[in-house]
Design a protein that fits this description.
mainly alpha
Length: 395
């Protein structure tokens, strides 16, 4: 299936998203039936998605953020829900007021799946906008990977992945359209959804530099640089939109300041999970050493994701998608500085790596493309079963 960039193709795109989304979730339900039969679990399908950090989000939705009295040293090592950003919980609190009779687990599953569908539409529109030659094929591959590929189950869990992806796709779309005020509004929500959201300001800077210098690389001189600075400062909508982006984070920091006296509590509390900011290269080398000794099989799995992510980012650079490349590098290096365990989530949920994969697959022969997409689908089945089984590396 191919999509065009014209408005008449909108209904076709929506239909394709709807079909893929429904089929992928039906497949997850079948995996759930298999898992519940083997494990003997009597919980609901929605409850099977309620794993790991979903408990922390539930605590925020039901009771708000903890003060010092809500912290337990025994059993939790002083962990608190400050590490989890407020946009998704606020969204769920609103929905619970609208639908008070619906349980949180089923509401979270349905609401985040719906948000995921909207994010797929926004991401597809961005792909069609930025890839006029093969945008239809790339959009189809990206939709398939997002719905059926590795870690798709996150987008139906009580996690922030769906709403973060939506905000990120909208930011990219409005940035490409140079609609900076709309970008700023989406940026506020983006920085309130996850700690890496505020880093989108670097994408804005890269986009601005590329737009100005792409046809003038042979003319680089101090005068031209000063011309760029003046032009940028005179673009009031660009300046305002960029300054708006961190507001979501700043408002959350203000709330933490009044709650516990530490605006950086969301970062400092990471120590309870054994995470501290470290040189990413040191973490990679240490993990590589452990994996080479066969000490921890999970380490090799995480390293594989890093290598694949780096290769996909290299593809974006070669294809001259510099804005996506720079932000993708930041999304890889910054989370890596606190540990390696969450890297697959950041790669899968950061939009640009899966976009690069779809971009590369779109130009391949049908047989090769079909085989690789099928392999990705099988991996997702395995990971979904592991998610229901609470495998430790799928946190």
């Amino acid at each position: 299936m191919k999509f065009g960039a014209k408005e008449k193709d909108t209904y076709r795109l929506c239909a394709a998203i709807g079909v893929m989304l429904v089929i992928s979730r039906v497949i997850m339900w079948l995996v759930y039936l298999l898992w519940s039969h083997i494990s003997g679990d009597q919980g609901s399908f929605a409850h099977a998605f309620f794993r790991w950090d979903a408990g922390w989000y539930k605590s925020i939705i039901e009771s708000g953020y903890s003060d010092f009295n809500g912290i337990k040293l025994e059993g939790q090592n002083g962990a608190a829900n400050w590490a989890f950003f407020p946009l998704m919980p606020a969204y769920m609190v609103f929905l619970r007021k609208v639908l008070p009779s619906m349980g949180l687990e089923i509401l979270g599953f349905l609401a985040n799946t719906a948000i995921f569908g909207i994010a797929l539409f926004a991401g597809s529109r961005y792909i069609l906008l930025t890839r006029p030659q093969n945008g239809g094929k790339a959009a189809f591959c990206w939709l398939f990977i997002m719905c059926f590929g590795p870690y798709s189950f996150y987008y139906s869990s009580l996690y922030t992945e769906s709403i973060y992806l939506l905000c990120l796709c909208l930011c990219f779309y409005f940035l490409e359209q140079e609609q900076y005020i709309k970008l700023g509004v989406c940026g506020i929500f983006l920085s309130a959804s996850r700690n890496t959201g505020v880093l989108f300001v670097f994408a804005i800077l890269t986009h601005s530099l590329h737009r100005f210098f792409k046809d003038r690389m042979g003319e680089l001189n101090p005068k031209l640089l000063w011309e760029y600075v003046k032009k940028t400062l005179n673009d009031h909508k660009l300046i305002l939109g960029t300054c708006m982006c961190p507001l979501g984070l700043f408002l959350y920091m203000l709330h933490l300041y009044f709650l516990v006296g530490d605006p950086m509590a969301f970062a400092h509390v990471q120590r309870a999970w054994g995470r501290e900011i470290t040189n990413p290269a040191e973490i990679v080398l240490r993990t590589l050493g452990a994996a080479s000794r066969g000490a921890v099989n999970q380490e090799a799995y995480f390293l594989l994701f890093i290598v694949i992510g780096a290769c996909l980012l290299g593809w974006l650079f070669v294809q001259k998608h510099y804005t996506e490349f720079v932000l993708g590098c930041i999304f890889l290096v910054v989370p890596l500085s606190t540990g390696i365990a969450s890297i697959p989530r950041y790669i899968a949920g950061g939009f640009v790596c899966y976009l690069a994969l779809a971009d590369g697959l779109s130009g391949q022969k049908r047989y090769f493309k079909g085989c690789l997409l099928a392999v990705l689908g099988v991996i997702e089945l395995w990971l979904t079963y592991g998610w229901f089984s609470t495998w430790g590396f799928l946190t």
